[in-house]
Amino acid sequence: MTLYSPPLRHIGFVLHEVMDVERTLAALPPYAGVDRALIDRVATEAGAFAARVLAPTRMSGDRGCRLIDGRVLLPPGHVEAYRAFVDTGWAGLACEEGHGGQGLPMLLHSVLLEVLNSANPAWSMFPGIAHGAYDCLRAHASDELKARYLPPIASGKWTTSMCLTEAQAGSDLGLVRTKAEPAAGGAYQISGAKIFISGGDHDAAENIVHLVLARTPDAPAGTRGLSLFLVPRRLPQGDGLNPAINGISVVGLEHKMGIRASATCALQFEGALGWLIGEAGGGLACMFVMMNAARLGVGLQALGASELAYQYSLDYARQRRQGRVGTSGDAQPLLVHGDIRRMLLTQKAWTEGARLLSYWLAIQLDIENAHPDAAQRAEAALALSMLTPVAKAFLSDNALEVASLAVQIYGGHGYIVEHGVEQMLRDVRVFSLYEGSNGIQALDLLGRKVLADGGQKLQLLLTRMLQTVEVVGSSVTIAAMSAQLAALIAALQELLRSGLPGATSVGAVAAHFLRALGHAVMAWRFIEAAQRAPLSDAGRSCVATAEFYFAQLFPESFYRLAAMRGGEGCLALPDEVLFADD
Ligand SMILES: Cc1cc2nc3c(=O)[nH]c(=O)nc-3n(C[C@H](O)[C@H](O)[C@H](O)COP(=O)(O)OP(=O)(O)OC[C@H]3O[C@@H](n4cnc5c(N)ncnc54)[C@H](O)[C@@H]3O)c2cc1C
């Protein structure tokens, strides 16, 4: 079978038929010239790069990285793929032209990230992290740092890393201990131990720019005492600070369940020279630029991984013959069996729903950054703030189901390494864990974003969604879907009016709330797609997938709302009752 075939038909359908992106981009001055031909060319060429250069490296990359003499070596083919990526100009797709980038919208960067992640999710950590670092530095670094670091990051000549986690500081970054002592020339000396740093070291680029959370002397405890520093592996010439290699050593390389071609490093900073980004004590706020981009990026990782798992499953279900139907004497392809069709359609619905949602969020980023009308920018910002944790957690959990179904469709063969399907299940598992675990995303959504203003911002978003479904009326099928979504929105609105949990029980219900809201937005995107679907093959397929989604997956939302209303008392029982030893 082909390793990966870019789903250009569905990508084009979502971008043009459903979202009419050419018209939206025409209203954004920096992107006014981005027409349909350019959009399609970027999608086609990105897909070709992913399929031809990157996809062949996915399975061999599973052998993992090696730590030799203090340096990390990527698996075979990965350095060459990175060089090809840089040489063909993909790294700077959505970076400013002034930094040597191509100045294209985040929407196209998102298409690029989807196809790269289908082809090789471990390798794709490089461009995923780089763009967040680029945005963070562009927003918060001094002009001098920007001039020195943004061009090589935009070109991909230098890669980046995000250094937050320490052994004692995971979800709770307030526990970070790494220190930053003032040094000569306005620099700082950074000392401390970071773990789990993706791309913390490797042999693909000539320099690595680490963004490190650390504490200045006398900084208060907790997150308010954290500052962000730029700490390059190789010090640039002309600092007057001499050593070419900074004080950073790789003290370990994690051996992981999945994404093994991504180097997950333990780094020791020993008086490494770094430069403050933004204000002292404002580190977490700066880092959030990067973390928000990374969270939307995880949604795209989930989309890419789901697409690949679906493609493999469909191909296998067409080839593999087992079981007879009726009086036929010949074994039939798996594809004829109802249970296999159910699993394939579940994969297809989660995948296409992820694309509908991710691309819609991506264009909200462009609207937020570049729309001349402040009200439009504010509306986009609100949707992004509310739905970033949803995209991260809802889509990553769905992708895990899609990958697991791929193993199921392959049967016992799915459990055997050589098919490359069990690797998908291992690779996808981390999406629910990093960039803030899905439990933390749910707390962020319900605790910080919804409860903080008594649900008012979410009400605005739900009202906007309701307006879309209320104008529908074209077909019985779409009217039925709209009625189901309207019922969910009414239930969510009722919950916001009367039944929001108190602060103590947020943790017990937040995950249910996030999935219920995830369904509301995915259902909304499906309805809009079905409304606009042309009478083409893509259009008919879209309506059928939406119908399946509403019948078989969407009802989970009501179960989640029901679960929010019960069981809390059990969770609050004393440990000696719930977790008593025998
Ligand atoms: C492959 C990989 C790559 C990574 N890359 C990077 C990287 O590049 N840079 C970086 O800085 N870090 C990175 N990480 C670290 C990652 O972001 C953390 O693992 C993650 O934030 C969770 O922290 P933890 O592992 O310490 O889990 P913990 O914080 O110990 O959490 C354990 C469990 O408890 C739950 N939990 C924690 N606190 C609460 C709470 N207050 N309320 C309710 N539940 C809670 C969590 O949801 C989770 O289920 C990476 C991790 C992995 C596995």
Key descriptive features of the protein:
single chain, 582 residues, alpha+beta, 9 strands
Describe the structure.
The chain is an alpha+beta fold. It has a domain at about 455-565. Helices cover about 55% and strands about 10% of the residues. It is built from 20 helices and nine strands. It has helices spanning about 10-20, 20-25, 35-55, 60, 80-85, 105-120, 125-140, 145-155, 285-320, 340-370, 375-410, 420-430, 440-450, 455-470, 475-500, 505-530, 535-555, 555-565, 570, 575-580, and strands at about 65-70, 70-75, 160-165, 180, 190-200, 205-215, 225-230, 250-255, 265-275. The strands form two sheets. Strands 3, 4, 5, 6, 7, 8 and 9 form a seven-stranded mixed sheet that branches. Strands 1-2 form a two-stranded antiparallel sheet. α7 (about 125-140) runs antiparallel to α9, α9 runs antiparallel to α12 and α10 (about 340-370) packs across α16 (about 505-530). The N and C termini lie far apart (about 50 Å). The mean pLDDT is about 95. The protein binds flavin-adenine dinucleotide (FAD). Flavin-adenine dinucleotide binds near residues 439 and 507.
